[in-house]
């Protein structure tokens, strides 16, 4: 089974989503979005831009 995106409205009225792995673990959480359409755009952005994303180590 592939991972899935879960979409909901938080207590403050913002739309949010989690990306869950096939084992049910949350592997990414979104910021709050003012509209459902904006949250769905965020999901589409991840689907489009993340598959080939490089890993860059930074120092903090």
Topology, element by element:
Elements: E1 4-9, E2 15-20, E3 26-29, H1 36-49
Antiparallel strand pairs: 1-2, 2-3
Question: What does it look like?
Answer:
The structure is a single chain. This protein has 60 residues and is α+β, with helices and mostly antiparallel strands. It is 23% helix and 27% strand. The chain has one helix spanning 36-49; strands at 4-9, 15-20, 26-29. A 3-stranded antiparallel sheet has the order 1-2-3, covered by helices on one side. β1 (4-9) and β2 form a beta hairpin.
What proportion of the residues form beta strands (DSSP E)? 25-35%
Give the uncertain stretches in residue-range form: none
Mean pLDDT: 94
Q: What's the SSE pattern?
A: EEEH
Please summarize the sheet with the most strands: 3 strands, antiparallel
Give the helix tally.
Answer: 1
The assigned structural class equals alpha+beta
Strand runs, count? 3
Tell me the overall shape. globular
Rg over CA atoms: 13 Å
Query: Separation of termini?
Result: 36 Å
Helix content: 10-25%
Q: How are the strands ordered across the major sheet? A: 1-2-3
């Amino acid at each position: 089974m592939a991972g899935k995106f879960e979409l909901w409205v938080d207590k403050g009225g913002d739309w949010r989503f989690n990306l869950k792995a096939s084992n049910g673990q949350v592997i990414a959480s979104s910021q709050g979005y003012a509209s459902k359409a904006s949250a769905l755009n965020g999901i589409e952005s991840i689907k489009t831009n993340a598959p080939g994303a490089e890993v860059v180590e930074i120092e903090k």
